[in-house]
């Protein structure tokens, strides 16, 4: 038998994973035959999984990927792409982030550099790292606007970017080969 007050308290404490499973357990005769510790463990596991899932969704959303469906598992290793599967697997582990190393993806337009960058970023989010994806023109505009604000916006923006563990700047290579980006020296 379900205790409605307990259920309401769980919801008020924002323990919705536990609340949902508690409701399910009260209707399922097989879980009612389990002991307290077993049922409690199931409740805690459900809440933990819900929180991890929510955190991952939030990290992916905050990263503003151009393709939030990109994934390491979805990379296609066609011979003409000359992708090193072992290197991609190694990068997917995230050691380059821990070692403060940079990755530059180069290749012809349309070869999937952005998609691979998004896939590496999403993989970093799966490791619960803070990631930000931004195109260089947007970053330049954001920095330029903040620089000329009188409310300390520039310093706040720089502080925000220093908290990011993986910053993916797309279209960087194109910027260095395009004269319309002479405004690069904004700092």
Automatic annotation (TrEMBL):
It comes from the Bacteria. Residues 9-172 form the IstB-like ATP-binding domain. Pfam families: IstB_IS21. Keywords: ATP-binding, Nucleotide-binding. InterPro entries: IstB_ATP-bd, P-loop_NTPase. GO terms for molecular function: ATP binding. CDD domains: AAA (cd00009). Signal peptide: none annotated. This is ATP-binding protein. It comes from Enterococcus eurekensis.
